[in-house]
């Protein structure tokens, strides 16, 4: 994870913001029931978060690289709909992960 920690800022501003998503992932998200909970394991800079929110789902993002994770949710103003309070980041410290069922896990 040290490599991702070192390149986090560059990754987010060059590759992460391109908006290139795997077609299979976006199709999968479109078939989730609205209000679904998605656990994005290894979320990096959260590039799938907008697609998850667009599908009407909540997201919990976790990543071992704290710098990448911090770009996913730099502050709560990045959450497009304040009615999605369960959308949040979780550090690599699993003690802070409140257990809750998820209907989808994206890795």
UniProtKB/TrEMBL annotation:
One of its GO terms (cellular component) is nucleus. Keywords: Methyltransferase, Transferase. InterPro entries: AlkB_tRNA_MeTrf/Diox, SAM-dependent_MTases_sf. One of its GO terms (biological process) is tRNA wobble uridine modification. It comes from the Eukaryota. One of its GO terms (molecular function) is tRNA (5-carboxymethyluridine(34)-5-O)-methyltransferase activity. This is Methyltransferase domain-containing protein. Residues 79-95 have a biased composition (Basic and acidic residues). Residues 72-107 are annotated as: Disordered. It comes from Amphora coffeiformis.
């Amino acid at each position: 994870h040290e490599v991702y920690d070192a390149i986090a800022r560059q990754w987010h501003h060059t590759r992460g913001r391109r908006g290139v998503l795997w077609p299979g992932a976006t199709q999968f998200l479109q078939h989730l029931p609205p209000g679904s909970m998605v656990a994005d394991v290894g979320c990096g800079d959260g590039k799938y978060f907008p697609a998850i929110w667009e599908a009407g789902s909540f997201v919990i993002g976790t990543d071992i690289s704290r710098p990448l994770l911090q770009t996913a949710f730099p502050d709560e103003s990045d959450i497009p709909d304040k009615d999605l309070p369960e959308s949040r980041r979780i550090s690599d410290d699993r003690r802070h992960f409140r257990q809750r069922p998820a209907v989808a896990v994206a890795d």
